[in-house]
Amino acid sequence: MREGIKKSKGKLVIFLGGDGQDDPNEIHLLTEEINKGYDYVIGSRFLDSNKDNHMYSNKAILPVNEFGNKSITFIINFLFGKNITDSQSEFKCFVADKLKEINLQTNRFEIETELLIKSFRKNFKIKEVPVHRYERKHGKSKLFDVPFGRFLFGLKVLRTIITGYFIWR
Questions:
Q1: What values do phi and psi take at 12, rounded to 5?
Q2: What is the C-alpha to C-alpha distance for residues 63 and 85, in angstroms, rounded to an integer?
């Protein structure tokens, strides 16, 4: 992601997962909000969803992943006084000039958290829009490759949150 940001030349930078879970046909939902003046638009899997009308299929998000995401999001919202629903969404759109103001330091999956916290710290105008999430079509999660992968990921994200809270200003 960092290399892609450096090499980007357009006015917008859009991220979506390479596993086919995000729908490129929904990019316009994010760019429409950028055109309204937002700096960072998050495609949320959990916004406007309820028990009867999920924005994602049952196979798109494992219960353990959903629990982890919602727990991380709760901690971020509590510490930073925000009301985000999907802090770990891969599907997002930035105004390129704003995104290039962020000096990213983390690696791997915790970069989602760093982007969000540093955007808070820079007072970016952030909006979430509901998007769909589908069952993985390509590849497999790298979190399965190491013992306790999800737990270790959670610890790295917590370290990122703590660093963001106490150090990134």
A1: -125, 150
A2: 16
10-62 tens-digit pLDDT: 999 999 988 888 999 999 999 999 999 999 999 999 987 555 555 776 678 88
Residues with Cβ < 8 Å from 40, sequence gap 6 or more? 92, 93, 94, 95, 98, 99, 115, 119, 124, 125, 126, 127
pLDDT of 156 higher than 70: yes
- Please, which contacts does 110-116 make with residues 24 or more away whose CB atoms are closer than 8 Å? 110/153, 110/156, 110/157, 110/159, 110/160, 111/1, 111/2, 112/87, 112/88, 113/72, 113/76, 113/87, 113/88, 113/157, 113/160, 113/161, 113/164, 114/160, 114/164, 115/40, 116/42, 116/76, 116/84, 116/87
